[in-house]
From TrEMBL:
Residues covered by region (Disordered): 31-51
Any one biological process term the GO annotation gives: mitochondrial DNA replication
Gene source species: Ceriodaphnia reticulata
GO cellular component term, pick one: mitochondrial nucleoid
GO molecular function: single-stranded DNA binding
Phylogenetic lineage: Eukaryota, Metazoa, Ecdysozoa, Arthropoda, Crustacea
Record-given protein name: EOG090X0O5J
Keywords for the protein's UniProt record, in alphabetical order: DNA-binding
């Protein structure tokens, strides 16, 4: 059985390799393509729109924490989703020796069918999990008509740790 530290290190290395490989492969495809042309603008105008094809970006989130609410299945039959909350902690030390801990809560959404079903079946409130995914933002109107901003993590992978 791997220790938590060893598992985190392996996951981190695999993630870094995977991202670097994807960027390298997509750059190679872009360079081999006839559509890609280097910018002829010699000025470094920051406000000029990017004109060199599709720009590569990264939206990646990795969280390690404890499940705060029992996962529930929501949505419609055509578009089901499993949601749960995840707690992560940050520890702070002050100059006078006091130590403080702040808990952040994250809304996790699982859309992938196989991952959705296994998350619903094998996770429980209080269990430690590692979630890899991406962050999304949205807006909803509450009953009072006020516009509220939301953020969620869409899980691409959930790794379950043995509870107990």
């Amino acid at each position: 059985m791997f220790s938590l530290k060893a598992a985190s290190g392996i996951i981190s290395n695999v993630t870094r390799f995977s991202i670097a490989r994807q960027i390298c492969l997509s750059s190679r495809r872009q360079a081999d393509s006839d559509e890609w042309k280097p910018s002829t603008n010699q000025e470094t105008d920051e406000s000029a729109p990017f004109s060199g094809g599709l720009e590569k970006t990264i939206n990646s989130v990795t969280l390690l924490g404890r499940i705060g609410s029992q996962p529930v299945k929501r949505g419609s039959v055509e578009h089901p989703v499993v949601t749960f909350s995840l707690a992560t902690n940050s520890n702070y030390s002050y100059a006078n020796g006091d130590v403080s801990q702040k808990t952040e809560w994250h809304r996790i959404c699982v859309f992938k069918p196989y991952l959705r079903e296994s998350t619903l079946k094998y996770t429980n409130k209080g269990q430690r999990v590692l979630v890899q995914g991406r962050i999304i933002y949205g807006e909803v109107r509450d009953e009072g008509g006020q516009l509220r901003h939301t953020s969620s993590i869409v899980a691409d992978d959930v790794i379950y740790f043995k509870s107990g």
